[in-house]
TrEMBL record:
Signal peptide: none annotated. Its cofactor is Zn(2+). Belongs to the zinc-containing alcohol dehydrogenase family. This is Zn-dependent alcohol dehydrogenase. InterPro entries: ADH-like_C (IPR013149), ADH-like_N (IPR013154), ADH_Zn_CS (IPR002328), ER (IPR020843), GroES-like_sf (IPR011032), NAD(P)-bd_dom_sf (IPR036291). PROSITE patterns: ADH_ZINC. PANTHER family: ALCOHOL DEHYDROGENASE, ALCOHOL DEHYDROGENASE CLASS-3. Residues 11-363 form the Enoyl reductase (ER) domain. Keywords: Metal-binding, NAD, Oxidoreductase, Zinc.
Amino acid sequence: MKAAVLFEYEQPVQTVDVELMDPKPGEVLIKIAAAGVCHSDLHVIKADLPLPVPIILGHEGAGVVEAVGEGVTRVQPGDHVVLSWVPECGECYFCKISRYDMCDTAAALAISGAQRDGTTRFSLNGEDVHQFSMTGTFAEYTTVPQESAIPIRKDVPLELAALVGCGVMTGVGAVINTAKVRPGSSVVVIGAGGVGLNVIQGAALAGAEKIIAVDLVDGKLSLARTFGATHTINAKEKDVVMSVLDYTDQLGAEYAFEVIGRPETIAQAYNCLRKTGTAVVVGVAPPNAEVSINAFSIPSQAKTLTGTWYGQANPRVDLPRLLDLYKAGKLKLDELMSKSYDLSQINEAFQDMVDGKVARGIIKF
Ligand code: APR
Ligand code: ZN
Ligand code: ZN
């Protein structure tokens, strides 16, 4: 079977034939139908998320269960599933308090690139091939822990369902689960890419009055309007903080979301806020990056600076719910999928994302 493998950091991904083992106890074999191309995959290529290579990239995907290992109770062959890239262990402190997004075990396994027992399911000429976050969706088939295989309704096309597996969950969840945006609020979203557009539509869903989208690419800003932005700022042309003040009666916004992963824009999100406002960092900056914030403002302006990982998801509840919202006409998925590719065109798909040409690129199998 074919998979897109990163062999060396900063190098193109190669589509090669790999071997896949049968699922072990508690694991599920999935035939992937579609996989979204997310900036986090690029973070791995750039070593901003330093994971062991060779590794099969892709963590946003959907498909059909082909086979299940011993003891699997959550799904059966034929089920449609969306992949969750944070398979909760159920046993660690954070799982006990129902913060599955913070599962310690899932975080450690993601860094190892292996499955729960510490071994890999993929290999190439006898050498281990790792999986991104226990998923590895840029592959015709993949084996994942059953906690990663979230059963979904069958009346949503799998290429659209794939999108909720990362970008939609992360963006909408940042608004609904983490910030808990109140109706009538003002919201700034810095970075209107695949995830940022979902923060924007999450804010619209939450009833925000002003949704101010910030990007460097005009095409992204017009997409942002489609997803519910009421104001747009091209950060190449205008000062972001000054413009936000102008749009909010010189108060600043009540909520700001950083959806890029850069220290400068994280500080910008904080600086866009009015006193008592909340900034949520969605973007993943390199592990050693530091953010500079004025110290006096911390007590004197009483803002909240927080972050969100996977939209603070409870995947078994939230992923199916997002698809219900889509079917109810309240969530846009079709508009996100701007271009589809064959697996062999994966590097082109990454380039289109870097060039700002797509909302979300989708690999179709
Ligand atoms: N100011 C404003 N917008 C910017 C800036 C900047 N300085 N730099 C980049 N952008 C815009 C890009 O033009 C693009 O539209 O940010 C957007 C990033 O979008 P994508 O490349 O599609 O990335 P996405 O998949 O949305 O991921 C964004 O969220 O989950 C994390 O790991 C992910 O860190 C990544 C971030
Ligand atoms: Zn992602
Ligand atoms: Zn856990």
